[in-house]
Amino acid sequence: MDNNISRRRFLQVAGISALGAAAGLAGCGQSRSESAASSASASASSIASASAASAGSASADSSASAASSQAEASKSDSLVLVFSRADENYVVGTVEVGNTMVLAQMIAEKTGADLFEIERVAAYPTGYDDCCDEALEEQRAGARSELKALPDIAGYDTIYFGFPCWWGDLPMPVYTAIEALDWTGKTISPFNTHEGSGESGMFSTLASECAGATVTEGLTMTGGTAQNDRGEAESKVDAWLASLQ
Fold this sequence. Notes:
By secondary structure, the chain is of the alpha/beta class. Strands 1, 4, 5, 6, 7 and 8 form a six-stranded parallel β-sheet that branches. Strands 2-3 form a two-stranded antiparallel sheet. The radius of gyration is 27 Å and the shape is globular.
C-alpha cells in the first residue's frame, strides 16, 4: 500500500481496493443448663440442634445446587463475540465505547445472547494515527495478536461476530480468535463497522476461515451511524435480526 496515502483515509482507501477483490470472492446457640440434673436433657437438645443444623445445611446445599442448575439451564445458546476499539476513532472522535461494541451491546440486549469481547494483551495506541500505523504493521507481517482470553464457544449454536474494517480486512486479533476456536456446526451472523469501505469481503473471509460453520447474511454500518444516530442504528439492527429468523 502506498505509504503516501493519508492515514486518515485508510478505511476508505482500503475499502475501494478491497471491493474490487471482493467482486471475485457474561448466631448464638442455646444457653448451657446450669443444673447437673438437666444435663441429659441438654445433651438431647444438643443432639437435636445438631440434627437440625445438619438438615439446614443439607437444605442450603440443595438450594445452591438447584440455583446452579437453574443458572446453567438458563444459559443462552447464542453469543455475541466482538472486537472493538474505543479511544480516538475516525469521524466520531474520542469515544468510551467503540463503534462495533455499540452494535454488539444492542444485539446482546435484543437477543438475550451472552457477550464476549476479544481483547489484545497489549492495548493499541489511543491515538487514531498511531493505531492505524500499528495495525498496518501487524497486517503486513501477518501477525497473530496475543489475546487476554478466548471464549468457550462449545455450548453456543449461534454466534453474532462483530469487528471493524481495518485496512480493508479483519483486524489481526480477530484472526487469532478464528484460528484458535472450533467452529464446527456453528451459525455465524457477522456484523461490522466502517467509514466507507463496507464489509470489504470480510464476511466471505469468515466463511472460508471458520471451517464447519454456516455464515449468514451480515450487517454492515458506518461507525458514525452507530455512535451518533442510535435510533437509525437500532432500526438497522432490528431489521437485520428479523431477516435472520
